[in-house]
């Protein structure tokens, strides 16, 4: 992964995080109340369960991308990163 790919990845992660927060803060409760379709309710439940942990996943990917883009294949650093999350 080169630097430009890393910047693109980081930008997409920040956009995803912002969009998820916006959805959660503005529309989630209203959509949950109005949703009658069982499948839609299941998707909303998955989002509700996953959202509190999304910031951990995004942080892990950010840190992983930085480690992988450095060109170093340090197994010890990778293990530390995984155990920190």
Draw up the topology in text:
Elements: H1 3-26, H2 28-34, H3 38-69, H4 75-84
Helix pairs in contact: 1-3, 3-4
Number of strands: 0
Instruction: Give the integer mean of the pLDDT values.
Output: 77
Structural class: mainly alpha
Give the N-terminus to C-terminus distance in angstroms: 22 Å
Q: Which percent bin holds the helix content?
A: over 70%
Task: Indicate how many domains the architecture comprises.
Answer: 1
Low-confidence stretches: none
Total of DSSP H or I helical runs spanning 4+ residues: 4
What is the H-and-E element order? HHHH
Beta content comes to under 5%
The major pleated sheet works out as: none
Q: What is the overall shape?
A: elongated
C-alpha-based Rg, rounded:
17 Å
Give an overview in words.
The chain is mainly alpha-helical and about 80 residues long. It has one domain (about 5-85). About 85% of the residues lie in helices and about 0% in strands. The chain contains four helices and no strands. The longest helix is centred in the middle third of the chain and has 32 residues, at about 40-70. The chain starts with a helix and ends with a helix. The model has no long low-confidence stretch (mean pLDDT about 75).
